[in-house]
Amino acid sequence: MGPDEVQRKLTTIFSTDVQGYSRLMGDDEAATVRTLMAYREIISSHIERNGGRVIDSPGDNLLAEFGSVVLAAECAVEIQRELKEKNEALQENRRMRFRIGINLGDVIVEGDRLYGDGVNIAARLEALSEGGGICISGGVFDQVRGKLPLSFEDLGEQKLKNISNPIRAYAVAEEIIEAPAPAATEPPSLPDKPSVAVLPFNNLSGDPEQEYFADGMTEDIITGLSRFRSLFVIARNSTFAYKGKSPDVREVARDLGVRYVLEGSVRRGGERIRITGQLIDAETGNHLWAERYDRELEDIFAVQDEVTEAIVAAIAPEIGDVERERAQRKPPDNLDAWDLYQHGLAANHSSTEEGLRSAIEQFDRVNEIDPTFAPAFAMASHARWRYVGNFGPDDRSDYLNQAREKAYRAIALDPRDPIGFSSAGRVHSFLGQHDVAISKIEEAIALNPNDALSRHLLGAALCSAGRSEEAIPHIDHAMRLSPRDIHLTTMLTLRAFALFDLERYDETFEWARRARLSPNPRTMTFALFAAVLIKLGRQEEARAALGDLLVRAPGMSCAKYREHAFGAPEVMERLADALREAGLPDTAPSAPSKIQQEIRFCPASDGVRIAYATAGQGPPLVKAANWLNHLEYDWESPIWRHMLYELSRDHLLIRYDERGNGLSDWDVDDISFEAFVRDLETVVDAAGLERFPLLGISQGCSVSIAYAVRHPERVTHLVLYGGYARGQFRRGSAEAIEQAEAMMTLMRQGWGQENPAFRQLFTSRFIPGGTQEQMQWFNDLQRMTASPQNAVRLRRAINEIEVSSLLSEVTTPTLVLHCRNEVAVPFDEGRLMASMIPGARFVALEGQNHLILEDEPAWPRFLEEVRNFLGS
To answer: What's the average model confidence in pLDDT over 686-698?
Structure first.
């Protein structure tokens, strides 16, 4: 086409605007804009579902095009019906009624934009329509007549503005728009496990031969998903009934009785092919997963197999993640066997010592409730051998014997479930029975070649058998099947270990470094990283890496690594020797007795009872309160326990709950910064302290600063983490004030309620890198710590804090620490605070969480810096 030629096409134009928009804006501009945005989202979603695309949306107008006249008319009726229902909830003078015009005509194409009389006629037809109505041109009428259950009113030929020839127009009868959707037959009930329907993939190539490719992919995906025993998959004959149609995903899910729907498309261009897929939760309409695959067509069947494998391997874990989240939201007194099983999976994924012990307990409970449920027996085995592998308990043989028994029980109950076979295989690896182990895991792979866990465990079994060269391709295959797997860190560590076995130490270092920087690194990750640094002659770095290991597993020793089944005995001996050179003791130190805390109460000057706790022994260390504390709830929480335990090992730790919060009195008149400082004075006096170091976290930093300025003779050291001298209202930023007000508005509406959207939004500001267990605990913390009214009052008092003028008056030796990438309190606030305190030392920590989690790099650095500063 030459530069002066115009590109044209025939298409269906859909135009809509709001009747009386100027009046609505004049009455209440803000409310009108909110309603317009909400209604426009509804309109856009209907257009997208019916195969249309939005071209433009200036002001109250919206312009779209459709490839199908019939779908455009169907879409218009659906929109008007839904908007009519939405308007019923509004006062008459606030109801927003859209007018819709539809025309089939020739248009000029320029990029994504359309021009010409075809567009103008649709806009003029829209103006002929009443609010809530639909007006179509004669060309549209000719196409939809007899194809849709609609009746029309002939408006005759209309002279439209700036259109030379009259246009025949028809209005869709009002009773059609008002008619309710036909009553649906009773849908089948949802199965007792995740259910998924795979719709036939659309062939977008315009080449009928590609139908075979698209259908083949759909069939292979159905077959692949059916191998996951945890899924209920609708058969091909049922889903292929939708071939060639554009059904509403929610209607498909209702008709077939499933919770999840997978849909996709295939498009070929020359020797390249593009395949897309998306997984939708039909209950919420949310897209859980979407991916695009671009491939060269050298071997069409190889491409089909490769992409099918990738899609199948990606979908099953995504569904599992959503099911676990769904179970976590259920109240504890309303859990059935499936929900308990999901809770067990969530605990198992946390990979902490407490998490794995909890998983074992949860799976065992399911075994008691339903002794025929094979997956729970398989996972009860899985959690036990993982616990042995990660934490080396003294009663190792008991755990492994139980794991073997549970695995074989799972196989007997369901000989087609690969998890039972792979768990049995891994137990045999730990017992040194390598041939049996490899054979069992190969059986698991035969049952489901797309199961990344079985591929991963075959690699582990081969490493344990001293066959590391053979193990590497299986580990790589597992990572390719599931590149975002919850066990990815273990896979990376295992690959590094295989290279360590082969004495390829430079490569070992690179893979161990990747594993160490991945989420939730394991104790073996740090052990291997320290060992390979020794092999590379980097002793000082190895000792630092060993410190990271001992923070996470203080009871580890060279003896435990020699007994470990991660690799062949001679390789584990080489690993243990390197760790001993790095400084790991030969035998484990005797376990310290569990630290207990004692809780007491003391009256503040205005009579409010303040709860405070003491734990540990040694010189005192006082922690100033911050909101969202609860003395009992925090002590065993996955957020605070590592910090509280470690600080209590070296000190008599004294901490307390803020007034209006936790165990302290909730019914209080005064919630203010001044009251916060007086409460700290009350607790210090009640504990009988003369001189002590003071720790402030978050807003506890500003309280600690004020106390240290008022009582310099009592504070020996000042430690400030994640804090600020200015609340959000005092930072001189309109954006900060707007955010603070918005958060308080949300708190008034959602605090402590079963509103997962609010709770997740709130939680993600404080621990965006948290595990499911940690997120759930922080979500539950709201209702445990404060009433909605107190939460807002506390937050307002915190936002009003301003102690900048006191910073230059601090005479106490001060250490300031702050995570670079945290969201709740900007890094610059911590740096500003440190710069204005005379002589303060500032440490930037590598982390994203406002509350330091145990498995992130910031934690060992924080502990080291604080201990060095306090001389403990």
So the answer is: 95
